[in-house]
Give the backbone structure.
Amino acid sequence: MIIVFLLLAGFFAGVFGSLLGLGGGIIVIPVLTILFDLPIQTAIGVSLVTVIATSTGAAIVYVREGKADIRLGMALELGTTIGAIIGAVIAGYVSNRTLYFLFSGLLLYNSISMYKKSETEDRKLIKNVDEIAVKGKSETLNEKNYTVKNLPTGLVLSGFAGVMSGLLGVGGGLIKIPVMYLLMGIPLKVAAATSSFMIGVTATASAFIYYINGNINPVVAVPVALGVFTGATVGLRLNKHISAGALKKIFIIVFLFVAVEMIRKGLGSQV
Amino acid sequence: MNSYRDNGNSVNRKQPNNKRALNTNVVISAILRISSSISIVFMLLGLGLFLANFKAMQSVLSYHSMGLGSALTAARDLNPLALMSLGLVILIATPFLRVVGAILSFLFVDRDRKYALVSMGVLIIIIISLFIPSLKG
């Protein structure tokens, strides 16, 4: 019975992950720890697998259609993979309580940035119009008509996203997308697609470490991963029909609620 | 018409070439699709057999990922856990395979040495990560 619930959990993580442009880890970890009462270490191992599944599913489409900038992605992966190793190693020395608190912090950051994004998205778009006009940017994403700026800073910040990934088992898209979009001058859609493409590689480095240490429970991870694959496919189709705005508002509230739950769990867990 | 498609010498020029970029994109996309399909087959088979043999109400928490060697041996006897573990290993290895594919594709399809080197760097970092657990002892 629990397997069915795990499949469903993965399915919803896949659907909402692909709809909101998240790796799915931020959904899977709270579900596994709060609803299934699994230890956070187990949840993180499963979440890394989830992130790889989401990324692979999305990248098959984005890369084939040329929506993801594979060269930029590869370059930034230098930063994220080094960060991911550092994160996975740190995770071995950090108490569960700290992990819960860090994860709550990440959820709060997510809620705030999602809230801000929906507020300021229009203004930013207007601000970019001049730039777009100068570069002659069109909607054909196959043509690379933007220049990558601030690559060294971008690499360092990607490294930070990698640490978050290794430490907390999330994709780190919510750090990478703003870094690419705001700092490096990459169009938002390309940034989101490139981030989806990248998170698989970032997670692979940490996932290997978790796997070798025996920290990935196949009986939990497999149903979730299968659910994610199905959910991500459905999500990519739904994408065209659903307003992301309303969905975002719901998730801001859910994330805030979950952040409080995780803090409570952290306070109750053994140090 | 894209006249310099067949001209390998024009590659080093820093300009977007859709057809050429598309080639590595197609390669990477194909690797991802094939590898994830194989992984899904293993996972489905393993999970199906696991559910079919699920007798004792053992807590799902008690399971751990199998070592690759023992998983390979046990998978021949259709051990559900081994099949699921192999599916997971293939899934985890999928991004790794696409980095290897990217190196080859950048080198031989796109003839873009710079990004072949960048991809090589990523590959080396991932390989280093494999040795870190043993360093921790």
In short: The two ends of chain A are 32 Å apart (CA to CA). Residues 122-142 of chain A have pLDDT under 50 and may be disordered.
